[in-house]
Amino acid sequence: MKHKLPIRDYALIVLGSLIYAAALCFYVYPRSFTFGGTSGLSVLLAKLLPLPASAFTVILNTVLMVLALVLLGRQFAIRTLVGSVLTTYSIAWIDLLPFAQRMHTPWMWADLVLAVFWIALGTSLLFSVNASSGGTDIIAVMITSKKPGVPAGRALFISDILIVAGAFLLFGAETGICSVVGLILKALFVDALTALGRRLRSKKKEH
């Protein structure tokens, strides 16, 4: 079957989704970082409405998952469906762990770097097998599908910048600055890790 997922692709989708979900629960939610994505929008909504950020992430990812099925190609939609379900419900499960809210360090900037690196790694693993975690990654893929020359990290930056701007309004200058820096670092890390993965796959094919 043309759209069946190889075992390797399944493994990378599972790994990428778990890494992404853990980074959100361990670092992003406790620190109220808002560097885009449904996770960032969820943090903003949790500030305004009486639901936890993890609940908003589940709701938003479900809506955007439906959009992926309708607007994007079948292969990407199937893989995004798998990645989105794994990420969404991994977040709900990890958030229930008693130590989840205590994984962050005493230093906000250290947590920022850790959060961005692990999210970028999870995103890159998913992108490498034509999948995503859902959320605004779907918007980024729409951008790259229409403009193939636009790097994945830059597309993520474009899709998330308005969400990050809301951090200044709701959480003040320190969190707002952290969020902007985090968004820039996420874009750079995603592009760097994606390029590294592409080179490794190319070398593997040569051998």
Give descriptors for this structure.
mainly alpha; globular; 207 residues; 7 helices
Describe the structure.
- The protein has 207 residues and is mainly α.
- It is 79% helix and 0% strand.
- The chain has seven helices and no strands.
- The chain has helices spanning 7-31, 37-48, 53-71, 74-94, 108-128, 137-146, 152-206.
- α1 (7-31) runs antiparallel to α5 (108-128), α2 (37-48) runs antiparallel to α7 and α3 packs antiparallel against α4.
- The protein starts with 6 loop residues before the first helix and ends with a helix.
- The model has no long low-confidence stretch (mean pLDDT 79).
Specify Rg, calculated over alpha carbons: 16 Å
Assembly annotation: single chain
The biggest beta sheet, please? none
* Helix/strand/pairing category: mainly alpha
Helix tally? 7
Average of pLDDT? 79
Low-confidence runs of at least 5 consecutive residues: none
Helix content: over 70%
What's the helix-strand series? HHHHHHH
- What spatial form do the alpha-carbon principal axes imply? globular
Strand content bin: under 5%
The first-to-last residue Cα distance is 28 Å
